[in-house]
TrEMBL record, chain A:
<dbReference type="InterPro" id="IPR051789">
    <property type="entry name" value="Bact_Polyamine_Transport"/>
</dbReference>
<dbReference type="InterPro" id="IPR035906">
    <property type="entry name" value="MetI-like_sf"/>
</dbReference>
<feature type="transmembrane region" description="Helical">
    <location>
        <begin position="234"/>
        <end position="253"/>
    </location>
</feature>
<feature type="transmembrane region" description="Helical">
    <location>
        <begin position="202"/>
        <end position="222"/>
    </location>
</feature>
<keyword id="KW-0472">Membrane</keyword>
<feature type="transmembrane region" description="Helical">
    <location>
        <begin position="9"/>
        <end position="32"/>
    </location>
</feature>
<feature type="transmembrane region" description="Helical">
    <location>
        <begin position="100"/>
        <end position="121"/>
    </location>
</feature>
<feature type="domain" description="ABC transmembrane type-1">
    <location>
        <begin position="62"/>
        <end position="250"/>
    </location>
</feature>
<comment type="similarity">
    <text>Belongs to the binding-protein-dependent transport system permease family. CysTW subfamily.</text>
</comment>
UniProtKB/TrEMBL annotation, chain B:
<feature type="transmembrane region" description="Helical">
    <location>
        <begin position="142"/>
        <end position="167"/>
    </location>
</feature>
<dbReference type="InterPro" id="IPR000515">
    <property type="entry name" value="MetI-like"/>
</dbReference>
<keyword id="KW-1133">Transmembrane helix</keyword>
<dbReference type="Pfam" id="PF00528">
    <property type="entry name" value="BPD_transp_1"/>
</dbReference>
<keyword id="KW-0813">Transport</keyword>
<feature type="transmembrane region" description="Helical">
    <location>
        <begin position="248"/>
        <end position="268"/>
    </location>
</feature>
<dbReference type="GO" id="GO:0055085">
    <property type="term" value="P:transmembrane transport"/>
</dbReference>
<feature type="domain" description="ABC transmembrane type-1">
    <location>
        <begin position="61"/>
        <end position="267"/>
    </location>
</feature>
<protein>
    <submittedName>
        <fullName>ABC transporter permease</fullName>
    </submittedName>
</protein>
Amino acid sequence: MKSLRHRLLFAYAMVVLAFLYIPIVVLVLYSFNASRINAQWSGFTLDWYISVFQNRYVLEALYNSLTIGLIAMVVSTILGTMTALALHRYKFRWKGAIHSLVYLPILIPEIVMGLSLLVLFSQLAIPLGKLTVIIAHISFCISFVIIIVLARLEGLGREMEEAAQDLGATPWQTFRYVTFPMISPGVMAGALMAFTLSIDDFVISFFVAGPNSTTLPLYIYGMVKRGVSPEINALSTILILFIFLVTVALVILPERFRNRMGDKKTQRQMPF
Amino acid sequence: MSRGRMLAYPAIAWLLFFFLAPLVIVLFMSFLQRGTYGQIIYQFTVDNYIRFFEPLYLQILGDTLFMALLTTIICFLLGYPIAYQIARLQRNWQTLMLLLVMVPFWINFLIRSYAWVIILRSQGMVNTFLLDLGLIEQPLNLLYNFGAVLLGMVYGHLPFMILPIYVSLEQLDRRMIEAAYDLGATPIKTFFYVTLPQTLPGIIAGSILVFVSSLGMFVIPDIMGGAKSALIGNLIQNQFLSARDWPFGSALSIMLAILSLILIFLYYKALQAQQGKEDSR
């Protein structure tokens, strides 16, 4: 009885996973289809890939997306983690207001944030471009980092830190060897979230991007609005492949490496 | 040791300048007038807000709310079991499954919506398949309607729901579940009285993310819905980029922002009240 319930749950989870992946698989398959319009399979071709790689606008948009994403991730992860640590540890006179300020960018619709930044930049006469996109991305990433790191901090007790300090660790040592290892999954998750949100963002970029700061989502939107074409499939497939490779490189390989060095890792984690 | 407090200042300053200040400017602008050529006239008016209550705009608002609510509910129903299943797995499998859920999320939602266009359009995969089998004579209208937009919304927002629920399930105090079993609770009772209340923060977080994101969405209706299924996001975008009526667009955005904040507040209060009732039981 118990195992039946669990098997049903497992099957349900698999169906949801299939729902997540079927469109992606279809998209990839059709990037190799020789026919430009039809859904019928009319033979294998790489023509659409060749035409994507010969498109310099695509390469430029890719470069823009990556640089903007990296800068937004680094800045928002540093600022966000600092803020989460301070908010967790210290009392602030305006605590309620600060919390609202942190949560509001997540709660407010993206479109409102995008157009309000457009209004700000136009009032300050700042030309729209890469800088305005980066500023906008950092603004919405910070809150996510703060909340994710705070959640992690709140899940932990203060006992470990107090024990470290009782044993004579300086505040820096306490942070480096006790607090940071404990919150690092949260910081990593926050950074990953920030990068994901930045790369994925279309709405806010749509309002604050200028002619020289077209990101990939903006470029793809332009293509999609012009209609279905196998070039979009090819470009999408390249992006999907890229995401898979990055995932493998960032997550699976270091984990394997760490497992192999298992003994050394435990030693390193106990400096006192 | 108040020096540590300063760690929070850079981010707070950033948010004040690049988040709060722009909103205040938009609020001001919503009380201004639009000139004949789309320029802004600095004269106070509330016309932009009154215009919102015309039937055309109220209809769009209603459609938007209904769509966001349905999306949230369906995401929860689809997302909770998969989050639960992932949390039950061994560590290594958890990582793998989370990655499998996250990877489509990293693919841009424009691409994911476009993938559905390929599948659903009249010369698309589903219609071609059904026509070839002779099950239908004419291609079905699967795209550019309410259902298509809903499908795209659910598909685009599902990981937003799964991740926070997974995090709260992961942090679940398993001793409570064991205690419930020891005291003779059935698995279903244990789930509804122990697991579900304890994962409420995750459910709230996930629902808020999905609902708010759906409310302001304009790309999915733009790509999968055609002109008929315009939501409030499409209307706002139109005011800023094509109609060049920034004051009216500002008023619409302020309404949308206030509306989503009120709904979130009420929703949160309701859940809090419910939780309080259960605690005192």
